[in-house]
Amino acid sequence: MTLAIPPFTLPADAPKAEARPHTFTVHGRQIEDLFAWLKAENWRDVLKDPSTLPADIRAYLEAENAYAEAALSWAGDLRKALVAEMRGRIREDDGSVPDPDGPFAYYTRHRQGGQHPLICRRPRTVHRIAEEAGDGETGEEILLDGDREGEGLAFFEISGAAHSDDHRLLAWGADTKGSELHTLRVRDLDTLTDRPERVENTAGDAVWNAAGTAFFYVALDENHRPARVMRHRLGTDQAEDTIVYEEADPGFFVNIGRTQSGTYLTITASDHETAEVHLLDRANDEAALTVVAPRENRLIYSVEHWASHLVILTNADGAVDFKIVTCPLETPARAHWVDAVPYRPGVMIRHLHVLGNHLVRLELENALPRIVVRDLKGEEHTVSFAEEAYSLGLLPGYEFETNRIRFVYSSMTTPSETYDYDCVTRARILRKRQSVPSGHEPADYVTRRLFATAEDGQTVPISLIHRRDLALDGSAPLLLYGYGSYGTLMPAAFRTNLLSLVDRGFVYAIAHVRGGTEKGWNWYLDGKREKKPNTFTDFVACGRALIEAGYTAQGRIVAHGGSAGGMLMGAAANLAPELFAGIVADVPFVDVLNTMLDADLPLTPPEWPEWGNPGESEAAFSTILSYSPYDNVAAKHYPAILALGGLTDPRVTYWEPAKWVARLRATMTGGGPILCKINMEAGHGGAAGRFDRLEEVGLIYAFALMASAAAKDGVQAGH
Prior knowledge:
By secondary structure, the protein is of the alpha+beta class. It contains 14 helices and 40 strands. The strands form nine sheets. Strands 7, 8, 9, 10, 11, 12, 13 and 14 form an eight-stranded antiparallel beta sheet that branches. Strands 31-32-34-33-35-36-38-40 form an eight-stranded mixed beta sheet, sandwiched between helices. Strand 17 and strand 18 form a beta hairpin. The radius of gyration is 25 Å and the shape is globular. The mean pLDDT is 94.
């Protein structure tokens, strides 16, 4: 850990994007965008074929990539060391705990040195004997070899693999460009060969009918939105596929699943605050769809099936943090909903899991999760843990008539542990403990839960980890991670990669800002639309609280966030640049106003409930304009910034980070450096291979180390 931290090494001149003024007027306000040209007019074509990117845009992006690599060129040894450390913490032949389903147990694993997963199974009886003997390979069938399928491709990612009820077929999807245009194929599990048919431009997952003669999938429309549910009959051409459901509202996305009972296909149409669920009997797949409850504005619900009833998780009747209701299968409308688990303010039900004899829920109170099990008599008991901050998740599995549930527990210091839990005997069986081959001693680290006070008096949770021997005198650098959108919870989970920073003297902290659900659904509502600025001021408050508590000092914080969390990074840079040594904005949603005004972009209409519709509402326009990072870049000193993007990203398009960096360079008065790196062969998730991803993390961590070292030494590298 004694490798010297190198300085930034900048070429004489940073790339300078040509200013090509584009002016437009909204609600009587004139907006000028100097760098709108970086958005390719043929962006739809670029998603499908990156070679169609216009030459002037490609030249600029390649110049940015070269500049970023040059700026970090002295960090080559550091990046190699970081990647080697992170790879050393991965058990390369690791796999999931086999999940039983009828005669087989299914699982995924990696081979030593492999980039992509293997989809496998073993006969259930063989699995049980082999498990008792500690034998992980006897009887194994490799159904799908991700390394072989991805061989020779610059990008490859398996999106899903679903076996038919009779275990003879596997529907699997893959993305080969990073654009999330997935191709579905069908593998014969007797011969382990793919059938000739291909189903293109899908969302990537499939649900079989009960007979295994057809599967359902979600097709993407011309604007890359999941809009239709299709039925594909085996042995037919995709052109003959039947529309089962089509969503008319461009603001709603469609997804599919199946109830835990296996009886029904579920079709959910939803945006960020309204949902509507349709059911289709998998044994009679040409029957009419049954709508559970017609959509009502801001009514959210999800559905499970139990015997002659439906079990529904919903926010109906003012249940802000959700409740569980039941209704007869034959009369599913809201008028027949009866409370099974009433709404309790401050206790958020995050997940519902229904088995033949038990109703299981994952709930959150005071930012800590727990599992609650209810039997047929209505008696309940709780599964929880004692650490100050931890992560807990339910794994649904395949089976319904079982008393077993599976959950995963970890904390920022405790590696992931997978347990099987018997809901009747309450026996807790450890099935797997995450292995850290290079070694990990939890006692060497401290994890804490702190609270910052926001501008309006709200208390904002912070989870953090540092080495036990770290001197808490304010001198330590600190990486502060944040997201705060869509109600997404950032768990205080174990992550081996971050130890490469922590072992070098960093404090690593997660700011659980408004826009997430760490403190319930109201925590989310207080960080969206007109209240979105709370997310940004919460993050700044967390940084200041950590300084006041002696964990770091002003100018020693490196902030990190991605996607909507990248918006948070841009807003924090504009609000309080003095707090930060550096900012990493990963696929950052920073051009918020322009994106929300463009209804043709893939995610814009479905995003209006989250941010507001600035074209329709003058109030929404004013709010977004007040914080949109791109539109609020000012003539001031900015910290070092690393912006990352993906050329084929349909979620946060490549031009958002590119435009933001161009405007920063043209406007700021000092600071930096400002670096932009666009992955020309990947999309929103970056590289797909598990070791290729480490290269990206190594880049981010090298930047964080270099930025914090430069700030400590009082160095301004220029922009």
